[in-house]
Amino acid sequence: MAATSTNAPEGYVSLRDVFGDAIMALGARDPRILMLDADLASSTRTMKFKKTYPDRHYNFGIAEQNMVGAAAGFAIAGYIPFVNTFASFLTRRACDQIAVSVAYPNLNVKFFGFHGGINLGEDGATQQAVEDLAIMQGIPGIRCYAPIDGNDLARVMNEVADVDGPTYVRLSRFPSPLVTPAVASDTERAAACRVLTEGKDLLVLTTSTLAAKVIEAANALKAEGIGIRLLGITRLKPLGEEIAAEAKAFAGKSIAVVEEHSIHGGLADGLSALLDGAGIAHRIERIGVPDRFGESGHPDALLEAFGLAGAPLRARLKATAKG
Amino acid sequence: MTDRKDIEKLEASARRIRAHILTQINAAGSGHPGGSMSCVEILAALFSHRAGAGATWFGRNARDHVILSKGHAAPALYATFAEVGMIPEAELKTLRQLGSRLQGHPDRTRLPEVEMSTGSLGQGLSVSLGIALALKLRNEPFYSYAVLGDGEINSGQIWEAIAYAGANKVSRLVAILDANGIQNDGRIEEVLELRPYAPKLEAFGWAVREFDGQNMAEVVDAVDWASSDAPGDKPRFLIAHTTKGAGVSFMSDRADWHSHTISDEQLKAGLEEVMG
């Protein structure tokens, strides 16, 4: 298993450490895999890869647009470039290049957005990304993932390396507990949707490492007699069809979506589109980042201040369950 | 030096490519004649002379790579493809029509012979850079060419690619600037003057050559130089001084012919001029 971040509590894992290990395994397996960085290689954990495969690591400097374009060129030439930088810089700065140079020509480029959401914490809004999934899901043809823990990311890494076409994986910076089983093999893929807690009173969907906070809330509410069926959504696009059946089983009740992302263009919108398409009447309680940017603060304090963890989240879920 | 006879053959090709451009845009009812006409010699020299492109050329794994970064000159690219036998000539009249493989700007998913989909300006050089790095990684004796517009190089991404290629001595990369002096809103000096180009590029570590981009012998000579060991370990930048709308007097050097329809009368007059 991956090493945890130095200051992480026992059993907690930062996704980037899992990423750093996964690329070593994938890189050994497939010589076509290249690492591309934009002066954040120490943050994206590609330094070990660079040391082992110096010819297969490229640092483009703080020039994300050029990095994405060069990735397209590598893909045309038959390589599989992994494009690594913060989710904010990747999706906001290089949006047009991702769309026109990669997605439109349907090239096999793997995007990794580090420090997605607000759990980057103290560095504040410019380095945080509350709209990365909205941008990437809005661009046609990109498969989008937001792994819910380190084990889940290991499965996602197997999957994206195996899929031909553009993919986006959102990673979180702040270490989070492992809530899914260890990866079974180097070919095991991610489940599109995973039941994290059982319950009959309220259906809740969540994604990314925020899942751990939602599990905490669900467990606390269980003690109060409120049963939550919590689905962890790893693959946001395309969203698993089985989610429609889950929603159908809770017909007539609100569904809560908890996401560390804008309430616009994230999981809640994806769910709404899926249910509309399936002809399932629904009401979604959108528990996410309202129309605003993030800010500085300790990750735990921030998530609670934004109503995505702790007592504010419990209260919101409780109110939704009671209708 | 290329044989005079070969140059004459390429010049005849260029005339047919110009005629194809005019007929395509006339049939489509819209398009970008000015910047298509100015890069004809460049495309003919790259595809016919340098790459030796023909019907089966694109399917090869080992070959040169050409990206038309100034995607609005798509009619010139399609006309060149037809001229060298990569696509049927009859298909040219489908330009910009619903369902056509010949999109308004090149689309590699519909027309696989297109190396790269382009149209959002400033992006092609980075893609050519990626290909050039791949050629270097595999130690292949080919080159990666990007055809740029002089308006296009307003874009910051172009200069990101220029900086990277120069610093890393990406010698398999060849940029060719179709310097026709006019962009969408007017003359370069009225919009964003970036000349002189050569000292800027040389400062970034590129080997630079300037020439008359409408003179086939000079274009061929420059492409040969860029595709040789002569420039050493530097990336290569060819500044082709061209004329917007070259070949047709009423289009020549005029900003309003950047994007323009071609009437039946204009087509007739234009064809007479280019086919002479």
Characterization of this structure:
The complex is a heterodimer of chains A (323) and B (276). Chain A has 323 residues and is of the alpha/beta class. Chain A has helices spanning 15-29, 41-44, 47-52, 64-76, 87-93, 95-103, 132-138, 150-162, 211-223, 242-249, 267-278, 299-305, 310-322, and strands at residues 12-13, 33-37, 57-59, 80-86, 110-114, 143-145, 167-170, 176-177, 193-197, 202-207, 228-233, 235-237, 255-262, 284-289. Chain A has two domains: 14-177, Rossmann fold (3-Layer(aba) Sandwich), CATH 3.40.50; 193-322, Rossmann fold, CATH 3.40.50. Chain A has 13 helices and 14 strands. Chain A is globular, with a radius of gyration of 19 Å. Chain A starts with 11 loop residues before the first strand and ends with a helix. Chain B has a single domain (4-275), classed as 3-Layer(aba) Sandwich (Rossmann fold), CATH 3.40.50.970. Chain B is 41% helix and 12% strand. In chain B, strand 4 and strand 5 form a beta hairpin. The radius of gyration of chain B is 17 Å and the shape is globular. Chain B starts with a helix and ends with a helix.
